[in-house]
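User: Study the chain.
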Amino acid sequence: MKIRTSIRITFVLLLLFSSTNIYSQKLPPVFTNSQSDKAQPSSLTRSYISPTRIVWMKSDGGASIQNEDLLLREGNGQADLSNNPTCILKSDSTDHPAIVLDFGKEIHGGMQFITGRTSTGKPIKMRVRLGESVSEVMSDIGEKGATNDHAIRDRIIDVPLLGNIEIGNSGFRFVRIDLVENKAELQLKEARAILIYQDIPYLGSFNSSDDLLNNIWLTGAYTVHLNMQDYLWDGIKRDRLVWAGDMHPEVSTINAVFGYNDVVPKSLDLNRDLTPLSNWINGISSYSMWWVIMHKDWYMHHADLKYLKEQRAYLIPLLRQLCSMIDEEGVEKLNGWRFMDWPSSENQEAIHGGLQALMVWSLSAGKDMCLILNEKETAKECEEAINKLKKHIPETNNSKQAAALLSIVDLITPTQGNSVVTNNGVHDFSTFYGYYMLQAMAKADNYDEAIDYIRQYWGGMLSIGATTFWEDFNIDWLENASPIDAPVQAGKKDIHGDYGNYCYVGLRHSLCHGWASGPTAWLTEHVLGIQVIEAGCKTIRIEPHLGNLEFAEGSFPTPYGLVKVKHTKDVNGKITSKIDAPKGVKIIK
């Protein structure tokens, strides 16, 4: 007792006579100074979302679910002892309850579960399945291609008594919860989704007399927004990787919607730093070429000369590497994985045509950047290589992908490109190269049909319940298909589980893939008519193409502020435009 008293007196004296009272000091930092210097802050935001509806329940026999509607209330994330009603899940020795919740639209993140009491006073095992479709959350791993690849979306967890547990992350819209233990009872106070995203404004906008086009523009923007995580991913469920080819449509959408964002240079630099020359980015020669093309596009929108100079040491030898892979007849001889997109991956003649076109495109972009960097010798090498490539005009082999690229770089005429791209309508379109097919149609002044193709193809995904655009889509899948936001109906096709090919068979198929966002950039560029002519958006051409629209309006981010346009068509088809541009941006028509 004397020892304890002495310690207590000493502590009080220290408090009274210390030059700085301990209670007036700030709490010590969590880390030491050296650790704090190495801490990596996140640019991402967490928000909580409550479910919008209950899709399905299993509550029969000895299994029961009570007060399930309480899960739809806004929660606070805190367990408590109030004994207020909660959703109660009960099982017996044979029957186990289950419930499927819908969060209204695709999100990236995880799940948070807030619990009350359990029947045993101990943790209870619960199975949680996240899915981009109802079909996915109703399936077991291995069934119709369902996987835990890249993101663990099907697991059994121990749910605590009066606690909080979080799981994730993945891309999903639906969650299925199953109580897996026999004779168990769980009070589930909340089941909230954790949305993890960049909290950034949509600076660009698009609005027209067609609500479907408006929805398509916004869905493409949202699809890319979800993939703007710490890096720019291809998909939020799968692969969650930085694929350089996938990035090109995504970066085009970012430029049209968000303007400058660090995720782009950060991801471009990651691909560069992971790929020593003479290798190809992601092992794919076309993806190294897309890397070059993206740098030119990025410079045109933002004119960041300092950043472009940082690429010199990699860009120049990469361009020379590309120049070295052309034979005397002007034929590309690229090694590595020869790839454009999955639907064209078995058409070797088409792949050659696409690669020949990408060589011209990337070396033209490279030449322009070399001139900016005062690398005149490499610029000359690029020019000579382009002239050599133009001596050889590949066949399209009826490939819409090859025809689109060949048309874009003028290796075939716009009429030839448009003829192949429009053959058989939107059949044989693809979500990735569909962007370039639309560009080829625009080059042939076929704007009206291109707008209609956007309605049919990308609108087709929306018609079946999509809230983001998919890794791939075939218009034929719509026939007799059950929507993705309901259990598959008897006699109907499971559009998620029954289709897909290559790396996206069945439920492995990603329903949120940034490379599918092309219509967002295309509608801004060709319907609003906003095209960057001078680096840094210093000069912008406005040339609208409304098709059968009565009006179209929107905004476009530049380093100087927003360009705003509104185009209105009168009964005679004449378009009147109202344009508001910030100081520093020259508008030409």
Observations:
- The CA atoms of residues 367 and 383 lie 7 Å apart.
- The chain is about 35% helix and 20% strand.
- The longest strand covers residues 98-118.
